[in-house]
Known about the structure:
This protein has 757 residues and is of the alpha+beta class. Helix content is 26%, strand content 30%. It starts with 16 loop residues before the first strand and ends in an 11-residue tail after the last helix.
Amino acid sequence: RMNCCGLLTPEKEPVPLKSIEVELEVRDHVATVVSTLLYENKEDKPIEAVFVFPLPGDAAVCHFSAVIGQTQIVAEVKEKQQAREEYDDAVSSGQQAFLLEESDQSPDIFSLSVGSLPPGESASIRLEYVTELAVQADDGLRFCLPAVLNPRYQPQGASVQVTSVPASLVPYSLSFSARVSSPRPISKVESSTSLDPLQYLNAEKTQATVKLAAGHKFDRDVELLIYYTDAHQPTAVVEAGQASAKPGTLMGDPVVMVSLYPEFPQSVMSSVASCGEFIFLLDRSGSMSCPLNNSNHQETRIASARDTLLLLLKSLSMGCYFNIYSFGSSYEHIFPKSVEYSETTMEEALKKVEQMTADLGGTEILEPLKHIYSQPCIPNQPRQLFVFTDGEVGNTKEILQLVTRNSGSHRCFSFGIGEGASTALINGLAKEGGGHAQFISGADRMQPKVMQSLRFSLQPAVVDISVMWDLPKGVSATVLSPPITAIFQGQRSLVYAQLTGQSSEAAEGCVKVKYNLAGHPSQSQVNFSLKPAEDTGLSVHRLAARSLIRSLELEQKEDEEEVDEGLRKKVVELSVQSGVSSAYTAFIAVNKSNKETIQGPLVRRNVPAPSELETLYTDISYVIFYLTFFSLCSDSSSKEDEAVVPEQPPRDPLLQLVSLQKASGCWLLDAALAAALGKTSEEVEKPKPASVGQMWATILALIWLHGFKTDAKEEWELLAMKAVSWIHAQNAPLVTECVEAGNALLGCSVQKDSLGL
């Protein structure tokens, strides 16, 4: 059903989608999104339109309806095959019908089929979904409305294909507005696109509205970052069950959503682990040669990834192990197996990283992952896997099943690069691999986000995680979310549970998450009232249902050809009961009140999704050529793609200095260091206190970092700690004199204490 049936540009045939209106309501960290899509058939015969679009991978699609003329039809959730048959029967008998279904390969691609729209008729389609907003490194909550469904890379023989055209030719308009409310004040809302100013609705600043500024072309993702004051307060929201549903069922009972932010003791956080096996897996498919973002066309995704690998490699500690894999249609590794980190192995790896380009064709991530997991783990070196990709794959489910099967042997940290990265893949890798996911888009720099994840990977693994409930007599909790597999300092952990039984309105409950951290038994807890919140509707129930549906879907074993019928039945039942879509169900709406059948043969149209090619092509004839054959930015292994080598911009001064650091943490006093500090060799040599050697060079580098690069501290903090450890190990005299002389030379006033010396 999701195959493309002809790639048609607006020049050749009018596309029926006219406008998209999006209303976003954010309550604390839960977003409800209502999209209204207006279709119009300008043809002189009835049409069937197919619109393929992305949604967040963990979204719970919970409402779908259509208005044609004066008639509203509300869709029902039914078993997928049954829904498809009803749709086909309706369309072939000339009735208007609508079908919304999730792709079999990836839970974040949906296709909407609009069948038998009569000539001149308009249809307004309303789609509603609920999603949890992810917490970013700086505590912002991220909402993303994808403008682009990048042509997902398909392994040989797969079926989903997506039409894509340059954004300037997308023939429909977008309007977007958001309303935010929280128990805590909203400090700011930022965006990758221009917004009208934030309007507060009350004096406490706990409610606000925000709109997209006029003239947005929808040529990039609309990303909102929402910041609350005191973001790390644990919360619990109880939502009443649906009055019409049977008590004892998921929709009939109250459901509680608990958000916890575990804080680790300072003593544990200061002892950063120095061991570990660090495996970096880098996407080198053709699309990695695209610009990292729309604001800076100079920097490509692959160039930014190379710079990031430099910082990562310089931040590792002596005594750990590492390896670097890169993949496209095939994969390569720098060493046959992970090697011990030393000056020699670091230099060899960096030489090879320098030469990496986006020249490996498609995005086949499954094979390198299988190879990594086939390597035996190194005793006492916990395996940490870092995956960098622009996430354009179609076999998401297969990849996640592989990660789940190996989740006991490693932690996986994932990075979605650029617009169009698959949320299902990036979030799924981290969730199943017990790690953390980051998205790098808009004007983001990759380095700070990646270094934050490296710091997470150096935190001790939290083990023996358990959730304990303390509830009034007669009330019990059934946890609906998957077990918590990873806890990181200050990062949110979510628990959904169904509350069964009766209690008084004033009753209170308590939930504790207990865990063991570096040998210290610890816990986080939140007390909550069992009185349901007034205004959440059924959003918490739907997110809980979605969470349970996802867990059940992932239980389907990859090596089992046949779908486990018991499992499938359970998912279908849950999906139909909660009105939330799943891999085994679809939304179907048929206009039964339409007495007249619609005459004439059906014309099939695919509605294009915008792509990032606008900057590459403006001539329509080239556009058709792209659609039919390939693009400079598509995952194609053709030689033409490799020929365009942009001029290298001069190296960033911070990276210049970092590249000179030795694996042990020190810097050498030479002409290259002097140049990186903006001095001559003579100027650097002259004020050096007698008999201090390499320590002088290392202190100068530290003063320069603290004096000139405080805004990028999270990028160099770990490698600076390594330098400080190296200085301490020298037991050298004259440190105070070196710091004073270094400040005088570089024109800084950095205190010895703030250097950590």
